[in-house]
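Pipeline run #58 for the internal structure catalog. This entry was flagged by the ingest filter as a single-chain record with no existing model, so it goes straight to prediction. Upstream metadata was stripped on purpose; only the residue string is passed forward. Reviewer on rotation: M.T. Logging verbosity set to normal.
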Amino acid sequence: MTALTPCSSIVLGVHATSHGFGWVAFEGPFSLHDWGTSRARDNKNDMSMRRFEKLLERLQPDTFVLEAFEGVGVRRSQRVVRLCRSMIATAAVQGIDVAVYRRGDVQAAFAHLGAVDRHGTAQALVRLFDVLRPLLPPRRRAWEMANDRMGIFNAAAVVLVHFQLDAQALLDSLDASD
């Protein structure tokens, strides 16, 4: 982790996992502010929500983003779906903008870097943010559970998609006004 005090214009990305969640906070597309994981053993959603609320209080983000957690082609447990819905509701009640992006958006954003899977995306993120290199887990084999630290990389990827699509929308609005 890095900075411990809130600052202006934070975008918080979260990736819920079977054990809790990974998160990152950015001040801009090139400014990684803070990151971490939260692991819960018992009462996973209750514990994760308490930690999420503390994170919101500490970072005071303007925007909260996450990857789509339900819908066609998305395989998430009902517990994780409930956790993501609770996080969205909590952020919205606090006046935090919420954005949800499809996995396909993430894949498209990182495809030109040769990232064909989540690990490839994580490797691309390490090239952008060397400070994350020690956190990069080894490639997961089919029979292994995902490493909790991958939640950090998945959250970072969706935040960068947010910045990319936000910038594209701004450019499109400028083009439409001409």
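catalog note: Confidence is low (pLDDT under 50) at residues 1-7.
catalog note: Residues 142 and 178 are 51 Å apart (CA to CA).
status: ready for reviewer M.T.
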